[in-house]
Amino acid sequence: MTEDISSIIASAEDHMKRAIGHLETELTKIRAGKANPQMLDGIVVDYYGSPMPISQVANINVMDARTLSIQPWEKNMLQPIERAIIAANIGITPQNDGALIRLFLPPLTEERRKELVKKCQGEGEHSKVAIRNIRRDAIEHIKKLQKNGLSEDVAKEAEGNVQQVTDKFIAAVEKHLASKEKEIMAV
To answer: Which domain holds residue 178?
Structure first.
């Protein structure tokens, strides 16, 4: 019976790690005043009729702290990439010089910084909800085992262990949010 409980806890921990990984990915997409190629990860461009991420049709480079350059592998992809960036509404207007596209990141205003912090908080809340749902599922599994003959003491101990794991991952979410907020608010 105890190997069932340990596998439930291990599975829950694995799923919670994935939730943290997803949060980290989402937070890298939120710009903090510095140019970062991952800001363009969610943007897809129409490549001969099929949607492709920009990173698969062009080289994306950081020219300086506030400038990204996108150099398509085919010249005829300049217009579709430019349209995709505008359509993505990331708050940056692309500058097309006929050979490559430059993205100049404007300095963040105090109001925009606060909006970005709120967006980060929202992502953090999604992660916390996911972690709590994982905890709920793990506890339901333990309760099923208890109905099938697991002792009440062992079940309570297992639920306590699941709660400890949950607390650890909620604290990790808070830590990620605090560091991202500090990064955004730094002028």
So the answer is: 2-29+109-185
Domain at 129, CATH number? 1.10.132.20
Considering its fold, how many domains does the chain have in total? 2
- Please give the C-alpha separations between residue 48 and each of 43, 57, 76, 111, in angstroms, as whole numbers: 16, 11, 11, 40
| Cβ neighbour number for residue 176 with a 10 Å cutoff | 19
* Residue 43 sits in the same domain as residue 100: yes
- Together in a domain, 69 and 84: yes
Alpha carbon distances (Å) from 123 to 37, 51, 120, 173:
20, 25, 5, 10
- Token pair belonging to 43: 């943007």
- What is the chain's pLDDT, residue by residue, as a tens digit (187 residues)? 577 888 989 999 999 999 999 998 888 777 666 777 877 877 889 888 888 888 888 888 888 878 889 898 888 888 888 888 888 877 788 888 888 889 888 777 888 888 888 989 999 999 999 999 999 999 999 899 888 888 888 889 999 999 999 999 999 999 999 998 888 887 6
- Model-wide pTM > 0.85: no
Choose one of 79, 104, 129: the last residue of a domain.
104
